[in-house]
UniProtKB/TrEMBL annotation:
Keywords: Isomerase
HAMAP family: Rib_5P_isom_A (MF_00170)
NCBIfam families in the record: PRK00702.1, rpiA
InterPro entries xref list: NagB/RpiA_transferase-like, Ribose5P_isomerase_typA_subgr, Ribose5P_isomerase_type_A
The protein's name: ribose-5-phosphate isomerase
Major enzyme class: isomerase
Gene Ontology terms: cellular component: cytoplasm
PANTHER family to which the protein is assigned, alphabetical: RIBOSE-5-PHOSPHATE ISOMERASE (PTHR11934:SF0)
Biological processes, Gene Ontology terms: D-ribose metabolic process; pentose-phosphate shunt, non-oxidative branch
């Protein structure tokens, strides 16, 4: 296992050990780090006989839950979650996040908003002072397909930078999200007030959700290259 994978695994295991308790309703995030969280959750269910019910944040998360034979639930049955454990593409000093590198930002934000606490698990490459310092692929914005062109122009004209339609790798044309939408990646942005810009982006007609998670995460666990874990709490 590479040091990056070990770092993800260590962060995921620690978060699951400290933040998941018996009878919890648990939000399962998406991405490669969350795979280790589900592995650990499944071990704890088997070894410690804890009861959990899991709410997925994507098709991938649902598959992970099913493959590990963990109890699957949803927001209709459980609208309030105890905890949501998810990865991130970048985490700044105040625990503002860029999410959606894997295209699952909409359901991730919905599920996180229903949880008492959002716990972030990541490797050391995700830890930044300010957004854009480490993650160069841009801020993902999920949009209704027919509106992608005017939204792109509007964001570039109002806020600068470059907005690109995310193209699929093993399919001709754009990435289509689990919700049937497109993703725009906003690159070369400036250092904004992220709470303000998030609100402004969200009211552009056709924007479904942004990958900016402001004042949502309670704590982040970063696996470091030396095997240790850095913990970061949200500012009070
Ligand atoms: O937001 C996400 C998916 O929409 C992921 O949490 C984010 O991309 C991090 O993924 P990984 O753990 O693979 O680095």
């Amino acid at each position: 296992m590479t040091s990056l994978e070990s770092a993800k695994r260590a962060a995921a295991f620690k978060a699951v050990d400290l933040h998941v308790h018996n009878n919890n309703i648990v939000g399962i995030g998406s991405g490669s780090t969350v795979i280790y969280a589900v592995e650990r959750l499944s071990e704890r269910v088997k070894n410690e006989k804890i009861n959990v019910q899991c709410v997925p944040t994507s098709f991938q998360a649902r598959q992970l839950i099913v493959q590990h034979k963990l109890p699957l639930t949803d927001l209709e049955i459980h609208p309030r979650l105890d905890v949501c454990i998810d990865g991130a593409d970048e985490v700044d000093n105040s625990l503002t996040l860029i999410k959606g590198g894997g295209g699952c930002l909409l359901q991730e934000k919905i599920v996180a908003s229903c949880a008492k606490e959002l716990i972030i698990i990541a490797d050391f490459t995700k830890n930044s002072h300010k957004l854009g310092e480490q993650y160069k692929k841009g801020i993902p914005i999920e949009v209704v397909p027919m509106a992608y062109a005017p939204i792109k122009t509007q964001i570039e004209n109002l806020y600068g930078g470059a907005v690109e339609l995310r193209m699929a790798k093993a399919k001709a044309g754009p990435v289509v999200t689990d919700n049937g939408n497109f993703i725009l990646d906003w690159k070369n942005f400036q250092d904004y007030n992220w709470e303000e810009i998030n609100t402004k982006l969200n009211v552009i007609p056709g924007v479904v959700e942004t990958g900016l998670f402001v004042k949502m995460a309670k704590k982040a666990y970063f696996g470091l290259a030396d095997g240790s874990i850095k913990e970061q709490l949200a500012l009070a």
